[in-house]
Model the fold of this input.
Amino acid sequence: MISAPAPSRHAPPDPSAARLLERIDALARVSEQADGLTRVYLSSQHAEANRLVGGWMAEAGMAVRVDAAGNLVGRREGVRPGLPCLMLGSHLDSVRNAGRYDGMLGVLTAIECVEALGERALPFAIEVVGFGDEEGVRFQATMLGSRALAGTFDPTLLDLRDAGGTTLREAMAAFGLDPSALAGAARRREDVLAYVEYHIEQGPVLEAEGLPVGVVTAINGQQRFRVQLDGMAGHSGTVPMRLRQDALVAAAECVLAAERIAGAVPDAVATVGQLAPSPGATNVIPGRAVFSLDVRSPRDADRTQVAAAILDECRAIAARRKIGIEVVQTHELASCACAPWLQDQLSAAIAADGHRVVALPSGAGHDAMAMVALADVAMLFLRCREGISHHPAESITAEDAATGMRVLQSFIEHFEPRR
Ligand code: HGY
Ligand code: MN
Ligand code: MN
Done:
């Protein structure tokens, strides 16, 4: 594991930015990994993170609950109880060996902003949500928490199994949730004025522009697949090369095909992040190879065309090598446009803080993609060093953390619900 250099931090000008960074560091220690950050959905670390962040929500004066999907929800009433809310938030789960800002920055900054409101009476409520599963690390399907809150959760996903064979249904019950009550997590459209997510950019654009923050125009659509290749295991010393049905070699050819096909389509990306040969012995020809495929594009037509072309090529490779192939799509989310009226209000907050306004697309997926089924959405991006993310070297500066907080605060205080 690369030991991440401590992010360059001067004493932040804003006292709550100092506390924000301390809290992010404290939350990063809630991990299944002794030497880094891994926190997956419905784990004991997820429960501990809900307790820790829930305590900070309570300190900020919010009523705190965990919903039927395990999402952490803090609520601050407006001028009178029960008003529709401006919903802020992001996710509290992480990828494996993650950075500490992806997701957590948005949740903890929103809590600071709510606390900074003090007794100020707003004509709307504010809710801050810490979603339990944006990354999809444990069950391969992503955004399970935000889909449940948006009312689009597919109950057949309850039969998904993690690497240990535990179903999502069993994991929910072990977490203290009732899987049969999952529909209760769904919110009503009339109760949510908008969903706005503050998140690190996870890319190089803001740094290249010399800007601390930017407004997101749209979030690229994405598809994920599980591909299983079944050849013939055998003795590595005795089976001649011409007689082999080596599943791992076939998978390697598929990986190269994914790179070639996606690389030929502007703005499309394809990634094989997981590849598992079995039985996994040095002297055994891999009879099986299972890999993940992640395909994205700003344009849904391109994305589906690239995914189909890659999988067609995988099938041709398997046929030529006399290898069986099984393809399962585990996830799909269409590209998501951010609402212009919200973009305008975020842009005004950025400009009021003295920055040039840049609008940019998001290549990374976010809970906002699921939340758009419930309410208009928008995102505020914060610069991160060299665009590094999904890696322990992910980092931001204290100054930028303070800037992002001021801009989010200004957006909240001037928020005008759409008439
Ligand atoms: O995969 C993504 O884009 C997000 O980080 N979950
Ligand atoms: Mn992520
Ligand atoms: Mn994220």
In short: The first strand starts at residue 63 and ends at 66. Confidence is low (pLDDT under 50) at residues 1-13.
